[in-house]
Amino acid sequence: MKKIVLELAADEWRALAQFFKRTGFDDRKRLGSRYDGGEEAEQMWAAVNKLQRALAEAGFAPANEQLGRADSPAFSFPTPF
User: What is the DSSP letter of 38?
Assistant: First the structure.
């Protein structure tokens, strides 16, 4: 497992959180490899879920209805913005 340190301004973190909130599994499925039976899309989905949790723990988690898939968690943490 790799750990990445990324320094962004607060408005950039908020924008990143919004971006991942607004994209769903269908986007990853469309952008993932069409030759691997959906494996890459599933890996993308898992990675984005981890990133969303990390953003939420850091206080950058916009309220969300549903993230585009029936088994996805709906993030609705208090936000600093």
Answer: T
- Looking at the predicted structure, is the pLDDT value of residue 80 above 50? no
Claim: this prediction has a pTM higher than 0.85: no
Domain count, the chain: 1
Half-sphere exposure of 56 (CA within 13 A, CB side): 17
Indicate the residue type of 68: G
> Is 16 part of any domain?
yes
Calpha distance 65→25 (Å, rounded): 14
Domain that holds residue 27: 10-57
* Whether residue 36 has pLDDT greater than 70: yes
In this structure, what token pair is assigned to residue 33? 């490899």
